[in-house]
Amino acid sequence: MAEVTASKQTENNTQRTLQIVVFKLGQEEYGLRIDQIKEVVITPNITKMPQTPHYVKGVANIRGNVIAIFDLEERFNLQRTETQLSGKRYTLVVESEDLKMGLLVNEVPNTISVNANDLDESVGIIADANAEVNYIKGIIKTGERLIILIDIFKVVDQELTTNLKKATAA
Amino acid sequence: MSNKEEEYKEIFLAEALENFEEINRLLTVLEKSRSDKNTVHALFRITHTLKGNAAGMGYTGIAEMAHVLEDLFGEVREGKIILDESLFGSLFKAADTLGALVNSVRDGKEVKYKGIKTKLEVIVKRANEDKVKEVIEEKQENPVGLETSVQSPFVPEAIGVGNQPSDEEESESPDESDNKLSFSDLVQVPVRKLDNLLNLVGELIIEKDRILASRAASGLQGSNEYARLSRISSDLQYSVMDVRLVQVGFLFNKFHRVVRDAATIEKKNVVLKLEGTDTEIDRNVLQVISDSLIHIVRNSVGHGIESPEERLAASKPKEGTVWLTARGETDAVIIEIKDDGKGLNYDRIKSKAIAKGLVTEEDVSRMTTDELSLLIFEPGFSTMDQVTAIAGRGVGMDVVRKTLDTIGGEIKVISEPGVGTTIQLTLPSSMAVKSCLLFELKDEVYAIPLAYTESVISLYRSDIHKAGGGLVASHLGKNISIVFLKDVFDYDPTVIGQSNNALQKTHDLVHPEEKLDIVVVSFNNRTVGFVVDKLLQQKEIVEKPLMKPVDKIKFIGGVTILGSGNVCLVLNVPFILHFIFSLSSHGRASKNFSLN
Question: Would the ipTM clear 0.85, i.e. be above it?
Fold first, then answer.
């Protein structure tokens, strides 16, 4: 496996720990760096937007800010269980310098600290053929859990912009 | 009216005081590093500005003083005057006098300034003479100056008779205001802070609506308790909006130069006349349209006004006139750019539009002059065969149109051959609050700005007929295009070949006897009826811009939060209309037959 090469790479930052917010999408656990997360709220009423990709659920009012709400399960085409289909109860608000948006999750995400050693950034993941940028930053293995660390802004940025351009070009 | 003058005066004072302080600061800088060209440039610019402002306000003293300083720094800049100790003395004295003059505007005190002014004038004059004379002569002159000062003990009063003719007057003038620090009554606030304030007020209003809605829902109606809250919050809102209003004069006054420059390059004689300069408009609107206005004015000079020879031949005054007028209406400000030139040449527009492939020959024959006029705002259109430096290269007028679309402004062109052209811009007086009509579509609430809505009608589906790729209905004897908004929103540009019937989809699904609510909107001569699911009430909303990444959805211009806390989308009517009409013209191009 690629682990051999990975452990060499991460040797220099042995003592660092990473704070990861973990949430479940489909059958898998996904993680985001904690500094990208602003808050977790109960999903408010979502207003649908026309001409958006199917995984953009619409916009919602969160503390006076109107932000876009995404469903990553639809985005990643993940299988869903019965309970997941019944309703997304929480919204994870993520924020970068120029972007702010909400991600739908089924349960309150939990935060874990992992050793930087456990993050394997060089996994040769078979990337989505359509994706220009690989949004998977690495795989975290702690105990029995396997967490997929993603860069949420890469997920959204690239294809949403291209998708929307197509929509408005007509 | 006097109120307005007061306001002007206050603004002038604030600027003048600022200029004065800047002059003082720059002078001290200059004294330390005398060869600093940049400082001299800056001083020249500031005195020039001050002169202009003061002359505009009719304060001759300040204007004259600033004028002589400007001249002096002009000469310094050219290197004709060398800065030395004694000159700095005079300069600081002059600056103090200027300060005193500015203060006198406020307190009405009389300030003597002629002395120092004349002194500086002499310095400037001498510098100019020196330029003509030989260098040797200049050297000769200096000893003369020295001589007089050597001789001075005999006649103390006559110090420097040669260069300070009215010395006595001058000696009294400064000092009084020397050590007083003055503060302006105006506070300069960055627009960003105002925007923030308005945002907060917007949220307050939304919150107020929410409280009122929840009370109404719980059945506790008719109480006066919230009347005060309503009144105060709406007063607050209007006060904040008022702060953002500026007079169009501030923008208009900059056009004297624009017209002059344009006319010089085109070798035409053009004067600019301003009217209604005290009309108030939201500062942001003014900022957005300023470039467009420059473009239109240049076009008027470049394309509208004829050359002096042509004008004389047409027995018009040699000098062309461009008018910039503004007037306020209830919810809008109308700005007109009018020229007394040759007017639009419709035949040229027709042939040009056909040549450029913008319209077909068949279309042209059916178009009204209003529609023809609007063709000049199409991308890539330019009637001038020759590209001139002024009026650009056929880009620009379409940008003007786009800019106006973004703020919901409208363009109208009125032209009479040989008499002139008027371009009328209807602009929203404020971008923050909009009256909107709320409606429901697919269980979501949308808002449509009242500025675009013409009427609301109700028709049976059987009244709506298919025509070409679209739908039409007649209402009050007029045929209008009908569009199911649902079809527009669901339109999928990636599916090829569907464009022909995409706008008829919902029509087929609806029962013929069903009554449909239709909002008739119009923008720039395009009228369309939008079929919606259900009409709700009319409401004043505070529009917020869309945030990234959904800000690229052009169908939606912004959002607002309803009393329920839900988000309501505000339609971008200009874009939707543009979209619909571009669809129909695509269809026409591919199938080679025309709609309507």
Answer: no
